[in-house]
Amino acid sequence: MKFYWRVVMVNRFWQTYRTVLFCRLFANYFALILIPVIVAAVLTNFFVVRLIEHDAERLNNTIMQHFSEQTDDTFVSLERDMVNMLSTASLKNFPGSSGDPADLTQHYEWIHSLMQQMNKLDSEDLVYKSFLYFASEDLVIDGNTYNNKDEYFREQYLIKDTDMPSYFANFTGKKSMVFTKPHTVFERPPFTRDIVSTHSNTAMLMSYPFNNSNPEVYLVVNLDLDKLRGRLGIQEKWVTDTMLVNSSGSVLISNGSSELQPDSFAAMIRMNPEQTLFLNENKKALSFTKSRFNDTWHYVSMIDLPTLMKPASTIRTMTFVLLGMFIIVGGLVSYYLSRKLYNPIREIKTGLESQHPHLDDAPGSHSGNEFDTIKRFSHLLISKNKELTQTVNGMFPIVQEQFIVRVLFGQYRDSLSIEYYAKEIAFPYKPVSSATVLCIDIQYYSPFAEQLSETSKSFMLAELKEKIRKLSPAMIWVCQTRSEQLSCVLHHEENGLCDLMETANVIKLLLEHPYYKASIGIGETIHSVAALHQSYNHAHSMLHYKSLHSGAEICSEQRVWKERSSGDSFLSSQEVNRIFNRYKAGDYKNLLQSVFDLLDAGMRSNANADQMKNLGTDVLNTWARAIESEQNDFDISVYSELFASINRCVTWEEMRRTFREIHGVLFRTTVAPDRKQQFAEILDYIRAHYNEELSIEHFAEQMNMSAGHFSRMFKEEVGEKYVEYIAKYRISKAKQFLLETDMKIDDIAGQIGYWGRNSFIRNFRRYEGITPAKYRTIHQS
């Protein structure tokens, strides 16, 4: 019995706890989601909806203002034409019909002149018919005819009988742009009784003389009310009617059938400001704009408020619907989660008999912040946009540099084409000026040729070009003519230095660098831009006399004749026979020593690089023929790489090291150890010493290979280039430091083996697409 009551108490507890779970879940949902939703709904109704209402009212006012200005401009134009017509016609001197033939002739001439002027008024779009009504004479003149008054209004302008008294009552006193009441006009062919159509017209009257209370003539312009109503209408779906109303509330012209109480409207326009919405006694919204043409006129629009405020009403309705949906969905989700959480707890706790569990609510998972995501993405777009802008801005100097390259290559040789293309790219130059071209050849030393990436080399050349330009921006044009060659055009007129050799020596100082050897070829001086290709070709030919000494050097015509060597660039027949004899005798050591002796002799005779490379190629060719005379187990690709390694030599020391490596490849006697094991040990060494200087020559010498041969073998075994592997491994370590430590960028660069901050940032951006600082910001946020 005791056990039974204990089970009953546990069941009651868990039934109560299920309700608690539901309340807690719904409270969390309410705090995290419903409160922001309710706040958003309130803000939407009090601010966004109100803003939409103000925008709708402002839009209506803008349309009304534009409409009133257009309509007023129409009336102003018509008034101006009427005044001009009356002023031009000079009706004051209009001759009467005295019966004298001379006066009669002049009388008819004046009538025809007036008819021609009336035709101009009839051409207006709103004018149905205009005529001159003479008060003191029985005469009416329009654009087509003239006649006495009875005959004219019986045949030419037939007015409905009921409208005639009010219409003719207007021809008294002074009139200045007075509108008559609407009247009906019958349209029929002359001298017939067949009515073709009817028109509802209103007339504008102006008397002449203008300031006379007893005018002699009235100018009548009959307006087609149907066209005027069409002009008066506003093509907006919330405007039900548009009217022209005077200050007393009388409707002059209406586009629809709405009624307006004159007294109440006159009171409203006195109490309400212009261009505001207000309700009349019929609960209809009105808006009025005062006419610029006539101070007593007002343009009134009847507004359908539900249509005008439909966007605001739609948003308000959708806000409440969404709020209700959030409440319902939150309740359902809370109920479902409470059941899912309660069922496992109930199954676990039914087995317990002696104690109640102490339950801890598990923390809920939080969704990501969409604003932070958009902000990070927008920052990335801004960064990309800045990079794109910098790229586009950088294209203009590149185009100018390419123009200089084309001139140097001789693609533009005549002055006319150079002038045309220079004008196209806004490139300033003097067609006739003394100039000299310097060709700068860059050769990277073997320790850095493989280690430096193409990007790093490009940055070095860009920095070098900028340094040369800073010497004298007005006198030096700098461009990159080949992948590792720069060309400088020195203009002597703007040269701030003393002479050509002094300028070359200053540039030589800039070219001193531990990574590469620079050779400067000096061309001949020319006296026009069109002849720059001649100086360039001469400067390029001077580079064939560069030496194998390290450091920057100048190759000019004077130095070539002074230091030209008379040594031979090829092996003699005796030396060839000596090589074959030593090979057959197995004297491999002296084979290498004989090459060193040739290099020493070339160094003493100051032989140039081309001579020694030709000599080295001849030696390698002789070695290859000697080996092939006894064995034929070398692939042609191996020989191609060996010949290429000689051509890549920059200094005497590199020539010695290259022949030592070639000698080890061709004449080695020991069996090479297992290649995979060797490369596995090299990879282990790289991972352990990634922050140290890892020279490719060091590993190549260990495996008795050339640097190029080792590079190819490394890619075959590992799957990527030696330089790429080290760079990627260092970047992976850098990412660990960025995310796991607070080290500075400079410290991380030194920790992973980079020489400086800039090279580290360039390589990190190359592989990751962003800078290290941005990488840390994105992944730590």
UniProtKB/TrEMBL annotation:
Entry's Gene Ontology molecular function annotations: DNA-binding transcription factor activity; sequence-specific DNA binding
Pfam families, per the entry: HTH_18 (PF12833)
Keyword DNA-binding in record: yes
Sorted UniProt keywords: DNA-binding, Membrane, Transcription, Transcription regulation, Transmembrane, Transmembrane helix
TM region(s), chain numbering: 26-49, 318-337
Domain (HTH araC/xylS-type) ranges: 680-778
Gene3D superfamilies registered for this protein in UniProt: Homeodomain-like (1.10.10.60)
Signal peptide: none
Organism this protein belongs to: Paenibacillus rhizosphaerae
Protein name (database record): HTH araC/xylS-type domain-containing protein
Keyword Transcription regulation: yes
